[in-house]
Amino acid sequence: MKFFKLFLHFFSTITLGITLVCGLNLMTASEFYVVPKYILLQVAAAGAITALVSAIAFYKEPKTSKQFWIVNAIHYVLMCVIMILIGLWFGWLSLELKGILSMVISVALVYAITFTLNYLLAKKDADEINKALQRRRK
């Protein structure tokens, strides 16, 4: 059950991040793009694939700060490789330096969005736990 909850959590935050970055990329493009009707399914598929990898990577919580940052660095590289492959498969980018750098930057933006959402949710949970503990001590 823990894995499934973790998967759903990552699926929702990553898919939201991909959607926001995709929208930002379309809004700032210098050319007019017709968005394919199947783009939402592609975004959901990319979200599901990366959420599965994320749930596996973060199923066991790192015990130290050093482990946390190592796992995150490896996870980011994995996300870049996976999204480059997905991007090539779905035709989101071309196999040239500009396309690959664009995807690496897009992954960084999604990572920042997801990291921020995860931090805010964890902080909210911690605050609620602390308040409950304070009430219990009184």
Report on the architecture of this protein.
The protein is an all-alpha fold. The protein has 4 helices and no strands. The chain is 82% helix and 0% strand. Helix 3 crosses helix 4 (97-137).
Query: In one word, what is the shape?
Result: elongated
| Structural class estimated from helices and strands | mainly alpha
Strand content range = under 5%
Please provide the ordered H/E string of secondary-structure elements: HHHH
State the distance separating the first and last CA atoms: 34 Å
State the major sheet: none
Helix content: over 70%
Mean pLDDT: 89
Rg: 17 Å
Query: What is the tally of beta strands?
Result: 0
Q: Which segments are poorly predicted (pLDDT under 50) over 5 or more consecutive residues? A: none
- Total number of helical segments? 4
Task: Looking at this protein, list some descriptive labels.
single chain; 138 residues; 4 helices
